[in-house]
Prior knowledge:
Elements: H1 5-14, E1 21-24, H2 31-42, E2 45-50, H3 55-63, H4 67-78, E3 87-92, H5 98-110, E4 115-120, H6 123-136, E5 159-162, H7 168-174, H8 178-190, H9 196-212, H10 216-225, H11 228-248, H12 252-270, H13 287-300, E6 303-309, E7 320-329, H14 332-338, H15 343-346, H16 355-371, E8 377-380, E9 386-387, E10 389-392, E11 397-402, H17 411-420, E12 425-429, E13 434-436, E14 439-443
Helix pairs in contact: 9-14, 10-11, 11-14, 12-13
Amino acid sequence: MKRKITEQLVAWKxxxxxxxxxxxxxxxxxxxxxxxxxxxxxYKTCVRVSLDLVPEVRNFLKKNxxxxxxxxxxxxxxxxxxxxxxxxxxxDEIQDCKRALLALKYFQExxxxxxxxxxxxxxxxxxxxxxxxxxxxDMDSVAxxxxxxxxxxxxxxxxxxxxxxMDFEEFLWATGNLVLADEIRRHYENDExxxxxxxxxxxxxxxxxxxxxxMPESVRKYAETNSYIExxxxxxxxxxxxxxxxxxxxxxxTAVKIRACWNSIPAQLAKENRKFQYKLARKGGTAKIFxxxxxxxxxxxxxxxxxxxxxxxxxxxxxxxxxxFKIYLSDVGxxxxxxxxxxxxxxxxxxxxxxxxxxxxxNYVGQALKTNGIDLRYWKNENTAELEFVIQDDTDVIPVEVxxxxxxxxxxxxxxxxxxxxxxxxxxxxxxxxFANGIKSIPLYAVFCIxxx
Length: 453
């Protein structure tokens, strides 16, 4: 399936003096697949080493991380001649081998002619965990695995990318709706209403995306079978895998706290005020008790954090309130599966009167914005005004209002625009494209068009 990140990988390959590349992302977002397909298409040969499955390589690296010796060993092990710029070396699940991560530094410093890509699902968690273990010197409470070693991240010695679940545009590509995707982009750029028939078609596909989500295996199942049951089966398996990771990459005490926060997310989003409340994870919960657990979920890539800003001035980062934030799932399809949201309700999300569907819609928009490199922030004042998102560009802060249907209110948006003199505002809803009174109307199916500014 076509992924947008391929263009970035090509740009990396063509960039003179590129460093080893680390591709991060949550489990099951397609990292291994995209790197292997990239290797097959853009290189003469490709060597993929699954560091979680090949103990021989891990054992070799414990004793030797000299780049020349590594190349000779991999050539012998895989019976493939590794040629600079012609062979791609893929180190998969690199978080399971500290020494492989360290080796990237020496490749960059001594043998930069070799093209190396590494994939890590829980690299941020593993690095953070290794640092904490180094400080605490407490190795008794966790399983003895290679990932328990202290991690020294090769800062400045690697290039980095992050892969998210497939966005709605990639979903359209995968389901054979390439022309529709192009039409959406054209109408977005021109603020021109879509023909009613195309608008309804796009809305219908958007609502299907709420069920299927963007995990590649779920999208593939839907494209092949049109079965939502098959999609939910895939999603439940992914959720189970995430649960297993909480035990593998955290000590038992921390794992309990991670699960408590993780399992509370549907309840957090169901509230009218979607600010994360620790007491919903456990009675009497506080930031001191659950702060590490929230950080684990963020580092794993399976949730997204949206921070409160108290003012609409540039730079927004100066007005963030770290104590007030929302948590979204990184994939809206997984949110529906985790919350056990009935499929028929999601397929009619724009018209069904259900409070949680508003949360699903907000999660979808947050996921789309984050995928496009936009930092997630929301705004509220001391009264009752609140905006789902605010986006900073070079000269302005853009207020973003999100509604699941066609009934829209502009009270909070008007308050923000008046107070901070915003030159433009975005209203995301089930309405068609349009522009009036400084408000750009963006249909829900077109959020993928809002790029980082």
